[in-house]
Write a structure and sequence with these properties.
38% of the residues lie in helices and 18% in strands. Strands 1-2-3-4-5-6-7-8 form an eight-stranded parallel barrel, surrounded by five helices. It binds SN-glycerol-1-phosphate (1GP).
Amino acid sequence: MKTILEHIKTSEKQNLAVLIDPDVFNLKKASQFIAKVNKSIASHIFIGGSTVEAHATEALISAIKPLTSLPIVLFPGDVTQISNQADAILFLSLVSGRNPEYLIGQHVKAVSKLRNSDLEIIPTGYILIDGQKETATQKVTNTEPLKNTQEIVDTAKAAQLLGMQLVYLEAGSGAKHEVQEAVIKAVKAEINIPLIVGGGIRSKFAIDKAFNAGADLVVIGTAFEEDESFFNKIKR
Ligand code: 1GP
């Protein structure tokens, strides 16, 4: 069976992840929400948030796992959000920042949880990009987002040279502006590992723009949190 990473690398169609933040998701709505996810073009469910209460991640995955066959991928804000019930984890290193805790610190703390787990571990270079609004990631990690395209491109390339398997361009949850097409194109031209793009994407038009610019996987959270009818626009 293909791993989740191999699937992203080789899939003909573009991938779309629905991001669920355990801290804001209403578990009572789980079956209704997941039924909509299942009928949409979503290919993955990402789970994570900047700050999440203890046990909220486990409770969320327990509730949704029986309801879907889509892969559940952890997109953790910190080590407390690791759950063996998921299928994979984006092992994120915040390479746009210079805070050692998010470059290597959390990773060392994660090892005791990951050593005996069956999670597929996907090393991911996580690049925070200015989305014209201070984001939770920025505040929690005490890092600044990147603005300069060449710096973003060089950071993505450095992540690949370090052996990371994915690059994630992140404008931040609820960003005013999504990552610009020119930035996605420039990064795509430089790397040959899959590219994830997320933050502030709120329309089918913006999804298509990101795919056309070179995103292999687009992540959407807020648009579904604010308006579940958004699913109607991305029906299969
Ligand atoms: C945030 O990239 C994700 O980490 C999704 O962002 O909530 O703005 O869709 P939105």
